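User: For my dataset I need records formatted as: sequence, then structure tokens, nothing else. Please produce one.
Assistant:
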Amino acid sequence: MRREIEQAVALLEKQDPRSLEQALELLQGTVFSFSMKVCGQREDAEDTMQEVLVKALPYLPKFENPRALLVWLYKVAKNRCLMSRRKSKFAPKQNLSLDDLMPDRRELANLAKDAPVNPESLAIRSQQARRLREVIQELPPQYRIVLVLRDMEGLTDEEVGDITGLRPGNVRVRLHRARLFVRQKVARQNHKTSVPKKTALRPQAVSATSERRPTSCIALFAQLSNYLDEQLDDSLCEKLEQHLDGCEPCKAFLASLESTIQQLRAAPPDSLSKASAAKIRRELLSQFSYILSPNDRT
């Protein structure tokens, strides 16, 4: 549950104009930030935010349950973003294959050679944030929605399921594949920027056998998100940790995935200018001055 939603509901219970404007400000920021992550275009995000709030205002006093308001707002915003006419410059595939997202033997070997990753020490900078936004826009919409809601908006699997209509198991599958996709893209971008052009080497021809992933590692990759989110049962968790203890490449891959998740969670939210946001709120409130009437509450 986002704290802003709970605060907004508490403000609405006061039933006075100032509290209503404060609640609207909280909801405005939440919807715009989410819409920017999903739409990828500021104009689309502004249109989505205004349309969602116009629909929400007449009903706001009726929401006494923060969870109900959260689900309603995100569901309406999600649907509006997916209907956006302006498309990303990227053309993502419709489905992500787990096999395509897993590292091959060469990448695992390179990960093991690199310096250890400390996910908690990573500070996301402006350039990193921009690249991360671009990568997120490359995700097919059905995966992007789940990733944004879960890792960037901080919602639970159950809340994501209520908003998307997905079963919990499907939420987990899409979340894991979306995380792997972002990790793969970010890792490739970082590799390109870290190798000087003059010294960059062409890939050597290798046999399919040498590129094949180690059989002992394959089963591990499907469970990594569940492990990081502490959603594995004790027996599976013990088996995975035993494998990690003896497999430095898999340990390095897990650290790179964890660092990706940390970057997603630390990504700074997009926001409107204070003047622009205040102007929009005034326009909205002028149209719905009646909504605090006791007769309109249920």
